[in-house]
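In this supplementary section we document a worked example of the pipeline. Step one takes a protein sequence of length 428 as its only input; no multiple sequence alignment statistics are reported here. Step two produces a three-dimensional model, which step three serialises into structure tokens for compact storage. The input and output of this example are shown verbatim.
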Amino acid sequence: MKLVSTSIILLASLAANAQELIYPASAQEKTIYLQHATIHVGNGQVIENGSLVFSNGKITAVGSNLPAPAADAKVLDLQGKHVYPGLIAPLTTLGLTEVEAVRSTNDFSEVGEINPSVRSLVAYNTDSKVINTLRSNGILLAQVTPEGGMIPGSSSVVQLDAWNWEDAAYRTDGAIHFYMPSLLQPANNPGRSIPDDKIKESMDKLNQVRTFFREAQAYNQEDKHAVINLKFQAVHKLFTREEKLFIHCDLVKEMLLAVDIAKEFGFDVVIAGGADAWMITDLLKQNNIAVVLKQAHSLPVMQDDDVDQPYKTAAQLQKAGVLFCLSNEGFWQQRNLPFEAGTASTYGLSKEEALSAVTLNTARILGIDKTTGSLEAGKDANITVSTGDIMDMRSSIITQAFIQGREVNLDNKHKQLYERYKHKYGLK
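The serialised model returned by step three reads:
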């Protein structure tokens, strides 16, 4: 028995250490010239037989008739392949949790209802084995988002090839998150609507948050403070619109309250979830409120909604002119983000509109569109190369990826286990 146990521990150790050889890439040294590829810019433009040049981590040129590469440039012939901007995963606990059932690996929440001073970035674990599974599907950036309580803290955008959280930071503390108390029991959960006393409890919590913001507003209007309040200081940039308030809610009633909060305090509000956003597109457009749609591969919220409503919502927002992007929520689930976009493209979005929903639109909502989200000169070289349509799981095989010009390792634990057991059973 002791021998068997020792063998199991040894095998587990070998498997665990295998991924330790996947380490961050060094800075780009040579100019890289990609040629003969179909380039999907991310802003709706597609360049057939195009070329893309990047140097020192920045895109320097993209087009169909670029000058010949410099003599010292590294030339990659991508004949028949597709080039995309690196995909961006919003609203994820990636790096904050590793095994949901193991409490010691979860670090995405703090005790208490209102904790805006908590920074999710400092808890981000760059050694998570889940990160590499996202990169293998073309996801190169992520918004690391806290959970738990009503205001659990701030989120940051990270790039997915780093030694530590300082290296990973792409945009630091760009948003504060507010999880609105539910006002109605969703149809995909058993039971009837929430009782009146439960609704009253939810409204009391909402008023508690409103009171917090009012007090924070008064605090931040003062020049000097006798006592420092870290929570009030943490939301200062909401009032100057340097940061955004992500309000997590799905129902129309909840989103109407979110609009009221935006009007009362002048916040730059983003609806996170927005399952019923298709019902109030005019109001969202009028108030310039963006939406992050979560988990399109799901049942509708209400019983009388069309069963395919989650698939159609993206196209309805696009038609109404509401800025939106797609998220798959969770952490390991984010690897399927490109296929969520593929589903949206079969329910009303064009292929390039669906691509924008996981690249440029996301960058705009997260406030990083000046540096990433599309393949344009001057932006970071966050680039994904695929053998086929990145939004089609049948044809998408990511062959190369670059983050700020650095070619990243696309190996992951899944691939390693696949090779391990293919070898064990003599499969070719």
